[in-house]
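Thread: quick sanity check before group meeting

JM: Hey all, I'm pulling together slides for Thursday and realized we never actually wrote out the predicted structure for the chain we discussed last week. Dropping the sequence here so it's in one place. If anyone has concerns about the input, flag it before I start.
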Amino acid sequence: MINGGAGFDTLIVGTDGLFVGNNSTILCIELIELRGDSNTNLFVKACGLSFESPSATLHVTGETGNVVAEGYSQRLGQIDVDGMSFMAFTNGNSFLQIELGLTLNGEAI
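JM (edit): ok, ran it. Output follows.
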């Protein structure tokens, strides 16, 4: 379990990557920043994921890296947040926003 607590919290993922999947819980993390190289991976699986934050939105940023997201099949389109451009996805009540320039499931967005 990862719990950011109150306020706006950032989780930094290095070269080894991070898997967030079945029976994983992320509480109160609003931003995941990918650092490292093009082999940095973030695995997010909506099924079985308990994700809670005041905004119910997870932002993923970084200069390079790949987000592998299962369950976020509904693409809402491009949005801008604080001068940054994201591609937005949803699964029920959870929202995933991935910064343009990263890859999603191996494809540039």
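AS: nice. The mean pLDDT is 75. Residues 2-108 form one domain.
JM: adding both to the slides.
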